Amino acid sequence: MRNLLEYAINVMKDGKSVVWTGVGPSLGKAISCAEILKRKYNAHQISKICYNKVEDYWDPCLPQLETLIVRRDIPTIHILISRDKLDDAEPG
């Protein structure tokens, strides 16, 4: 996590915004990194939450069985951190 923050801090020094994306188990880390960066630069934030649809195919061990298809919705978050003021009408 420290390497990501160091990289993002360097990007914020040169640029004006960073987007953090977390998928599944990494949601918490993406939120933590975004909050740390937001506080360091007193920046503005817009967050978007969605689901990624994933299909897993499991081949059977026995030839007479059918292939198992598992469909999952994996939560995803995108967090825009910007030094510039963002649109107040934008939800998130």
Describe what you observe in this structure:
The protein has a three-stranded antiparallel β-sheet. It has a single domain, classed as Alba-like domain (Translation Initiation Factor IF3). The radius of gyration is 19 Å and the shape is elongated. It is built from two helices and three strands. The protein has helices at 2-14, 27-41, and strands spanning 17-23, 44-58, 68-82.
CATH C-level class: Alpha Beta
Low-confidence stretches: none
> What is the helix fraction of residues, given as a range?
25-40%
- How big is the Rg? 19 Å
| Corresponding CATH architecture | 2-Layer Sandwich
Q: What is the total number of structural domains?
A: 1
Sequence of strands across the biggest β-sheet: 1-3-2
Q: What is the number of helical segments per DSSP (H or I, 4+ residues)?
A: 2
Q: Write down the CATH topology.
A: Translation Initiation Factor IF3
Q: Return the string of H and E elements.
A: HEHEE
**What is the β-strand count?**
3
Strand percent estimate: 35-45%
Global outline: elongated
- The CATH homologous superfamily corresponds to Alba-like domain
Query: Kindly state the mean pLDDT as a whole number?
Result: 92
